Every structure is written in C-alpha cells, then in structure tokens.
Input
Amino acid sequence: MDFSTSQIIILLLIGLMAGALSGFVGVGGGIIIVPAMIYFVHMNQMQAQGISLALLMLPVGALGVMNYYKAGHIQFSYVLLLALGFIVGSYFGSKYAMRVPEHKIKFIFSLLMLYAAVQMLWKSGAKWLSEFY
Output
C-alpha cells in the first residue's frame, strides 16, 4: 500500500502516543489506537480493532488477529508504522513515568479513560438513538 507523507506521520504519531501512554500509564492499545484510527485515519471500528490487535499480536492476540485478518480488516503496513511509533513512545513514556508521582499518573490515566468513554458514548449513542427517530 502506498502512503502519503501525512498518512505516515499520522500513523507514527498515533503509535508514538500509544507507546508513550503505554509506558507512562500502562495503556495504549485499544484505548488509544482504536479511537485514533477511527477519527484520524477514518477506519471503521472493525478495521481499527483488527489493527490494534495485530499490533499487540505477540503474544496476546494471535488468534484474534487471525479472525480479523481472514475478514479483511487488517492492513499490516499500518501495523508496522504504528509499531515503530509505539516502540519509541513506550521507551520515552516509561522513562518519564519514573519521574512522576503515582497519584498524578492515576489522575492522567483516569482522565484518558473518561475522555475515551465519553467520546464513544456520545457518538455511538447519538447514532443508536437516531435509529428510533
């Protein structure tokens, strides 16, 4: 697959942010990559989930990745670019986390989860409610 320069930068930045947050507060895969792939790369939910699982495939998601791949929801070129950013981000995120008090990390982690939850509830809830009207 051919990427534009902006697509490469977006994928590397998503990987970098997910990796940094993974190293910093222990999250990154689903909570960062899935919403970012949906909103910034314009993938559907299944593609974003498949790519997130493929990124984290070894050792945790091999069987799940197989199912998403068979259904055509994984583009490994995206996975490789995200992984590159994720590796770099995770290194620097964990280095920084060692210098931050635990209560601040917990606060940041809870804000990230709350933000992701509100975004998903708002957008999916609005769509779900529109089915009734």
In short: The chain has a mean pLDDT of 83. The first helix runs from residue 5 to 25.
